Amino acid sequence: MPAERGVVDYAGTPAVVARNEATFAKYGNQLSPFPTFVTPTFTTTDVTIKQPTRTPIYDASGKLIGYNVTTYNPDGTIAGTTFQAAGAAAPGTGKNSAYDLLLSQFSEYGLGALVEPLKNLITNDTSEGELTLLLRGTESYKKRFAANAERLAKGLTPLSEREYLGMEDQYQNVMRNYGLPASYYAKGDLGVQEGFNKLLANDVSAIELEDRIMTAQSRIINAAPEVTTALKQFYPDIKDGDILAYTLDPSKGLSEIKRKVTAAEIGGAAIGAGLGTGVTRAEELARYGVTAESAQKGYSAIGGGLERGRQLSSIYQQPDYNQAVAEQEVFNLPGQTQAGEKRKKIIGLEKATFGGQTGISSGALSQNRAGSY
After folding, report:
1. Does residue 213 fall inside a structural domain?
2. What is the predicted pLDDT for the residue at 209?
3. Which residues neighbour 289 within 8 Å (Cβ) at sequence distance 6 or greater?
4. CB 308 within 8 A of CB 359
5. Predicted confidence band at 217 (pLDDT cuts at 50, 70, 90)?
6. pTM for this structure?
7. DSSP character for 7?
8. For residues 43 and 105, what is the distance between their CA atoms, to the nearest angstrom?
């Protein structure tokens, strides 16, 4: 019986056998009616593969721009690192990964409680960016970062969480350094420092805050009491005990505050010299560059000779030598030359009468005492 196609017949004639053996030798088990298969063996071991890690990357302003994502080989060595932009979903991350990452970030600021309520609101395919949007829509988040809504309404860019908390830290450090009561930076629910919301909403820098505090402390609170007296006379809306609060109110421009303080310093100098002045005149003198120091020197000079000048102008029937005229000469105001001529004229008349002696020229309005002309 002839061999079937594809089958080697070992029971045939010697010639057939020889041919079949030669074929078998060439093709091996491929032509065997009972081919032998080698079954591979596998050794199973438990392998723990290290999960990818993400390292936050921030720009020069502290804003999060993305992450360096590092993946690992089964043996724990680093397989590679790629950059992932902020807000993009990490490959293979799901509900827990996005939630855990956001929770970790906010926990660094002590605000993990803001994130925890979101755990049951997200689905398995929620990305980190979507989770962040959910977080910023919660009432707790809006309360904690309330100044951002006001910034938006004023056309200002909202602050990132890192920037927002960083500014609060700077404000607190400035207030502590200047010895302000802890009530100015006390923390309430969710760590909110109510006094800081206005500062943040009005884009007040830590440098400006320090300037405001210095203005209040060094130029009013710790100054001569006459300055405070003049301030309250000139600006009745500033009450006792409210001077610091007034200067810290960002709705009051810093330049406006300094203008009022300078006017009060000028008014205080006049009061200290036994004179007086009104808010309009004090602000006018401030615009002409009169400072607290020059006001003290000037009014000291004016106060020492003004009364005698009035007497002499009356005695010799000359135009009245009054405080406004003296201020023109002492503070280098418009009309300074004419004011000086008035003084010199009455001095000359007195000298002619009393043999070269005059109460006004040897008194406070002499050049050495006034120091301004």
Report:
1. no
2. 96
3. none
4. yes
5. very high
6. 0.59
7. -
8. 42
